[in-house]
Structure formats: C-alpha cells, structure tokens
Amino acid sequence: RRYRMARLTPVSSIMGDYYLDKKGNKFYYVSVGNDGKANLMCRDLKKGDISVFAPGVSGGLLPDDKGENLFVLSNNGMSKISLADGKIDNIEFDAPYNRHPSLEREYIYNHMLNQVKNKFYDENLHGLDWDSIGAHYSKFLPYINNNRDFAILMSEVLGELNASHTGASTSSGWSSMPTATLGAYFNEAYTGPGLEVSEILRRGPLDKKKINIKPGDIITSIDGETIQPGKDYFPMLEGKAGKKVTLEVKRSGSDKEEKVIVRPGSSDSHLLYDRWVENNEHIVDSLSNGRIGYIHIQGMNTSSYLTAYDRLLGKYRNCDAVVVDTRYNGGGWLHNDIALLLGGKEYVRYMPRGRYIGSDPFSQWTKPSVMLVNESNYSDAHGTPYTYQALGIGDVVGAPIPGTMTAVWWETQIDPSLVFGIPQVTSKDMNGNVLENQQLTPDVIIYNQPEEILNGKDAQLEGAVTHLLKKLSSK
Questions:
Q1: CA–CA separation, 370 and 393 (whole Å)
Q2: 3-state secondary structure of 80
Q3: Distance between terminal CA atoms of the chain?
Q4: How would you write 91-120 as a 3-class SS string?
Q5: Which H helix or E strand runs over 310?
Q6: Contact criterion met (CB below 8 Å) for 444 and 399
Q7: What is the pTM of this model?
Q8: Helix or strand run (H / E) with residue 451
Q9: In the chain, fewer beta carbons within 10 Å around the N or the C end?
Q10: How far apart are CA 58 and CA 340, in angstroms?
Q11: Could you give phi then psi for residue 253, rounded to 5 degrees?
C-alpha cells in the first residue's frame, strides 16, 4: 500500500471537504487560495491537471446517488454543483420554526450533566454526588431567559468539580466595529488639549519615518475633530482600523501644526507583547554581558515552537546558556517537543585543522538552560515545565504552578453559540500521581512583587539569569 501512495493536492493550502468521483478519475476538493477565497478545485487523476472547477465554494460536500452533482452545505445556505459543467444552482427552502429556547437549554443542561458522568477524567468525579448537584442547580433553569446567564449557570455547576478546563461560554454572534489604535503611549499627566506622546510602539501605525512622530509631540485632532482636554478620544477612532486617518500634530517645542496620514491598527496587543519580549531580551543580555539568551514561548503551539526554534538555534546558538520563559502561557500541546529541543546531548565536535565550527546534534540545544514559570502557567504550560523538571533537563525558576495538566474537550452544543468544557485525559507522573491539582514547585522559588513590576523590575527574570551565571561559573 505504501508504494501506491500519492499526494493529490501538490500545493499547500487550507483544505476543506473533498470528493472522488465514482470512476476514480477526478478528485474534487475545497481549497483556500493565497487571496483568502475558497474554491472548489478539480484534479484530473489521469492527466494530472488541476483547475478551479467552481469559484467561491466553501463548506461540506455531499454527492447525489448517481454522483452527477455535489450538494454544498455552508453558512451561505445550500447549493448544487453539476459535475458535468460546474454550474451552481442555489437551493431555496423553508421549514417551520418551532424552536423553544427554554426546552433547548434544559436539554443542553441535562446533556452536560451526562457528559461529565461519562467523560470526566476521574470516574469518581472527585467524590461528588453529581446527581444531587445537578438537581440543585436545575431549580434555576426556569428563571433563565438568555444564553449568557445560562452559560454562567453551567459554569457554576462545572465549577463544583474543582478541576481545570471546565466552564461554559457563549458568543453573541454579533460583530461590532473595532476601535482603532494608534500604537502609542500618551502622557497621563498632560492636562492640555490633545494627546502628548510619551512612547511610540515599534512597528506600530505611528512608527513610520515619513510620519516622524516623536515623544513630546502632541496629536491635536483626528480627522478634523479636535481632541478636547480630559475627553475620551476613542470614539473618534471607531471603525477606522486599517483605514487612512488624518492626524494634526504639534511638534515638540513648536506651535506649528502639520497634518499626517496614518493607518491605525485594530489592536496593540501584539506590539505590546513584542515590546515586553524585547525588553526581557535586553535585560538578560545586559545582566549576562551577552553570555545568556532569552526566549519566550507564548503558547504551546506550532507558531510559538517555530519562533523558539528560530531564536534558540539562530540568534542564540553561540550563547553559553538560555532562559526559556513560559510565563503567561495558556497551554496547547508542546511539552515533548520542547523537551526534545532543549534536551540535546552533545556527542561530537567538528574541528577542521583545529578550528571549531559546530557540534551535533545541530537541531537541539545542548547547553545549560532554566525554565521560567509563574502562577499564570496553565494547561500544557504546566505540563511543559513538569516534563522539563521530570527529565532533569534544567532547573525551573519562578513561582509555583497550579496543577492543570489535563487534556480538555470543548464541546459545541446544538445551539452553536454555547460551548462547555470537560477535562478528559488524565496525566499521571511515574509514581501514579495525577497531575491535575498537583502543584509544581520550582527548583528556585522567586515571587514577583506588584510594586516592583510597576517600576520595571522583574525579580524572576533577574533571578533566572543569576542562577544560570552561577551554574556557568561552577562548570
């Protein structure tokens, strides 16, 4: 079988549903192109040709009995595509609407209770009388008339389990125009008209050479509307993310105003994250005189792993050690990958004519490291330092982590705006202890104090560098 395997979609893309015709000659699949649009593609398996069979098609594909047509089910409704000529016909339908939200919520509530019984990672449900708990909270159901209150009720019930990865949530399904952001900090002590710039976030909307806005400059108006002293300016930016906006700017030390054109962003969160990481890199570099590198793993996911791999084995390859920061990480599934990346053992050196040019393993970190953690590590961000500590890769530094290393199933309900979670997969250490609710205690305990953080001091980060420097000096 393995010698007959062939890749049917030679171009990488976001893939959707697919269908192979009855003769096995043509393969149809939904693919999202570089333009972000989904199309129904067709590959002729005899000729090898690939073409767009029907543009603008997304959703599930269902063939008719004869294999002559494909029915498409999507958020845009239902349609039929003829496999003879690619013609698309929309299918109109109507149906009686007899939904009763209160009965639906009652069904979801009872379904949630049963799912916990059948799927919660501890078959003893942490010793709870689950039927009694369910009956108690069900008394509130007749008084609930909206999904937000219903999600809170389910969260309260699930909270009785005293476990991570539980709770319920709801989404309104409505979208609002986002308030744009300028990517800057403004002087809160300034009481005059306009906004006095105190810091420009790097790579943000105002960080452009032709705009040349600097700290001390005052933005006096947005799209011709004057910014009044003490008045909220955010309504002036409503719905303007990504659009051209005219700012009037009074330069520092001058009464002259000039107009500049900017494109505000939709959020500053990524800019602020990069600012925090770059500041931490600078602190570690300064304290260690360049000997120690710093990486932050933002999430236990592919993109964060690729970033860590790039920084660790790129910029910091020649450093003597590295601080691996996992604080504020919400989890995912990356513990084994990180352990492999950091757990390399050098076994050979390449030295032509006595000059060192590298070692193997080349794709793993083989030098000392510490893993930095705090109370905000969650889920696999508990699992990763547990793995790191259990395998003896290095010391864990920071504040204790609550035990939350279980794998969760977030289940979408028949009302798709409602979701609840059940932790299903138990993780046990090699002594048989369940890691859920089992605190991870760092090898070196350091707590950050709120007042120090506000003043720019990160005792955990500084302590991690100090600890590594001691390790290096003792070698």
A1: 8
A2: strand
A3: 53
A4: ECCCCCCCCCHHHHHHHHHHHHHHHHHHHC
A5: helix 302-310
A6: no
A7: 0.84
A8: helix 450-454
A9: N
A10: 39
A11: 80, 10
Residues present in the chain in total: 475
**Mind giving me the DSSP string for 164-201?**
SS-EEEE------PPBPB-SEEE-TT--SSSEEEEEEP
CA distance 436 to 440: 10
Specify the residue for token string 């076994």: 347
Per-residue pLDDT of the chain (475 residues; tens, 9 = 90+): 778 887 888 777 888 999 999 999 999 999 987 778 899 999 999 998 999 999 999 889 999 999 999 999 887 789 999 999 999 999 998 888 888 999 999 999 999 999 999 999 999 999 999 999 999 999 999 999 999 999 999 999 999 999 999 999 999 766 677 899 999 999 999 999 999 999 999 999 999 999 999 999 999 999 999 999 988 999 999 999 999 999 999 999 888 889 999 999 999 999 999 999 999 999 999 999 999 999 999 999 999 999 999 999 999 999 999 999 999 999 999 999 999 999 999 999 999 999 999 899 999 999 999 999 999 999 999 999 999 999 999 999 999 999 999 999 999 999 999 999 999 999 999 999 999 999 999 999 999 999 999 999 999 999 999 999 999 998 7
* Tokens read off for 4: 């007959």
Q: Is 189 left (phi over 0), alpha (psi -120 to 50) or beta?
A: alpha
Cβ(12)–Cβ(21) under 8 Å? no
C-alpha distance from residue 371 to each of 43, 244, 365 (Å): 48, 43, 13
Q: Is the dihedral of CA 121, 126, 132, 134 positive or negative?
A: negative
Tokens 């790097």 locate to 202
User: What does DSSP say about strands 195-200 and 184-186: parallel, antiparallel, or unpaired?
Assistant: antiparallel
In angstroms, the CA 377 to CA 383 distance is 9
- Local structure of residue 278 (DSSP, 8 states): H
Quick check: 365 and 313 in contact, CB under 8 A?
A: yes
| 28 backbone φψ class: left, alpha, beta (φ>0; ψ -120 to 50) | beta
DSSP state of 213: -
